[in-house]
Amino acid sequence: MSSAVRQAVSELCVPVPWGEIRGKVWGPDHGRPVLCLHGWADNCGTFNTLIPLLPKECRYVAVDLAGHGLSSHRPPGVFYSFSAYVADVRRVVDGLRWTNFSVIGHSMGANVAAMFSALYPEMVDALVLLDAYGFLPADPKEVSKVMRQGMDEMIQFEKKSEEKKRVYTYEKAVERLLTANPTLSEQSVRILLERGLVQVEGGFVFSRDLRVNFKNIVRITLEQSLEMQLRIQASVLVILADKAFEAKISESNHQKLFSALLQGYRDRNHTVVTLPGDHHVHLNDPEVVAPLVSDFLHAKVLSQQPPA
């Protein structure tokens, strides 16, 4: 089964007003549609090891979000934010002519997926959040500081004349990404670099837009997050990794925010599971994650009668 899925991979390209959104497609043309959204600074390669282990009757489209992988960077002067990525998802599904589909998101991609599911609840039947809570609530007291910081970073960046990207040998790029992401296996790093590097004279540069590193200036509070969470009509599966996200956020204030979100899912009979592993467990050890996602898709999507 998995080898058949693995072979049916094609490249996706959806035109957007500033260029294109790229991605990869697995599975049969008329399979049940599943959109896959990667985490911050990653690319759609993050799903390379997981998708071949998932139900073969689905059609999986994994996209490189704007400024990541092989997708176009946003135009000069334009900020990156969750809401902008949500609008990009709307453009992509329009281009695919999808009206009803499931979404699997990792980390930042999970937050984009949850916000999309709240804004367009009629379009999403099932939602899988990989090591994320679906929303990143901001402390209202911090919002002004963060907005100012994001604006200052962008304006400083714009003042530098033609920022030259650092050129690496392939092995140095591997080393750099391993150092930046200690939770990634070397094999996982090499997978992400397939779309994360561009060849230039003298070596490689990272393909992603440097501006994705800047503070996100569009923030929502816990109250807004819980209000959005209420609007999600999809069935939700939250898969947390025990050594990952929560471990990093030991501050009690953040913990309170995330506990409130998790309680929100549980109150609506959604599923929250914690697995042994780290933030990229779906990529490093897909066989741990795949059975949960497969069972969920079978129960919530594949066993249901398609809408007439």
Estimated radius of gyration:
19 Å
Query: In terms of structural class, how would the helical and strand content be classed?
Result: alpha/beta
Helix content: 40-55%
Report the average pLDDT across residues.
Answer: 93
**Main β sheet profile:** 8 strands, mixed
Could you list some keywords that capture this structure?
10 strands; alpha/beta; globular; 308 residues; eight-stranded mixed beta sheet; two-stranded antiparallel sheet; disordered N terminus
Structural description of this entry:
The protein has 308 residues and is of the alpha/beta class. Helices cover 41% and strands 19% of the residues. The protein is built from eleven helices and ten strands. The strands form two sheets. The chain has an eight-stranded mixed beta sheet, sandwiched between helices. A two-stranded antiparallel ribbon has the order 7-8. Helix 3 crosses helix 7 and helix 5 crosses helix 6. The longest helix is centred in the middle third of the chain and has 20 residues. The radius of gyration is 19 Å and the shape is globular. The N terminus is likely disordered.
